[in-house]
Amino acid sequence: MKVAIYSRGFENVTIQDLQVLLSAFTHEKCHTVLYKPYYEEVKHLLQSDLLMDSFEKASDLDDSYDCMISLGGDGTLLDTVTLIRDKNIPILGINFGRLGFLASIGKEDLQSAVKSLVKRTFDTDERTLIHLDASVPLFGETPYGLNEFAILKSEVSSMIKIHTYLNGEFLNTYWADGLIVSTPTGSTAYSLSCNGPVVFPETSSFVITPVAPHNLNVRPIVVPDDTVISFEVECRSNQFICAIDSRREIVDKNIQLAVKKEKFSVRLVRLNENNFLQTLRKKLAWGFDTRNP
């Protein structure tokens, strides 16, 4: 088995946790490859028998890899999506962050996660991506995201007006601080914090959620994911913010924007005992009542 490991650094992942993981893979005779910037940061702290190969960019990965492991929180896992691209390598998220909707496997389960990978006793969930088309190049070679695309006002500007169209037909003009178009996966992220609905990951849909709308009758709406959603933005300043997941760019207000379903998807590894409903109950404390002992 050949496994790649990605992490942003030492903020939450300790060297002890990393050595436990690497030792488990070494014991199972797996070929483990570490993200180069992270490897350069930690290699002087690793035991000599844990020194290994490294990768640096998306082109270093190919179909010989059986899995990509993300060590961190959900933001770290979103980074791995930009490295995997269309290579169809399954992603296993191990949570060293806070909530962990995507990286739902706890660090206490490192050993069992390795055994599940080696024995292939795991499931994978296919997740839809959202793709951005723009009249000028945006977000380099990765104009797609796992969670959402968002249009947001700049920090000092007043509300913006976002004229929104579905397959060319006018939907609504949103007077708001911004507008989110989320995938089903992203329905539990930024969209949820703006009162968007929770959508099951396998649902073929996008959720359009306004950010602080100035109309009381404007609510989130769910549309089919074969819809092309386009926008025209009006604002007092000359610029606004476009964001895909945790990445953002400042753009001119005259830019033309449209989003649609990406041609490829990503696969997230799920251990057999975990599912979406269990994640909801655990992360959102659904069914938990402090009145019960």
Task: Give the gist of this structure.
By secondary structure, the protein is of the alpha+beta class.
List strands and helices in order, with pairings:
Layout: E1 2-7, H1 15-27, E2 31-35, H2 36-42, E3 53-55, E4 67-72, H3 74-84, E5 91-95, E6 105-106, H4 110-119, E7 122-127, E8 130-134, E9 144-145, E10 148-152, E11 160-166, E12 169-176, E13 178-182, H5 190-193, E14 205-211, E15 221-224, E16 229-234, E17 239-244, E18 247-252, E19 257-261, E20 266-271, H6 276-284
Parallel strand pairs: 1-2, 1-4, 2-3, 4-5, 5-6
Antiparallel strand pairs: 7-20, 8-9, 8-19, 10-13, 10-17, 11-12, 11-16, 13-14, 14-15, 16-19, 17-18
Oligomer category:
single chain
Q: Low-confidence runs (pLDDT<50, min 5 residues)?
A: none
* Overall mean confidence score, pLDDT: 90
Portion of residues in beta strands equals: 35-45%
- Strand count: 20
Strand order of the largest sheet: 3-2-1-4-5-6
Count of separate DSSP helical elements:
6
What proportion of the residues is helical, as a percent range? 10-25%
SSE run = EHEHEEHEEHEEEEEEEHEEEEEEEH
Terminus-to-terminus distance: 46 Å
Please compute the radius of gyration using only Cα atoms: 20 Å
Largest sheet: 6 strands, parallel
Shape: globular
Structural class of the helix and strand makeup?
A: alpha+beta
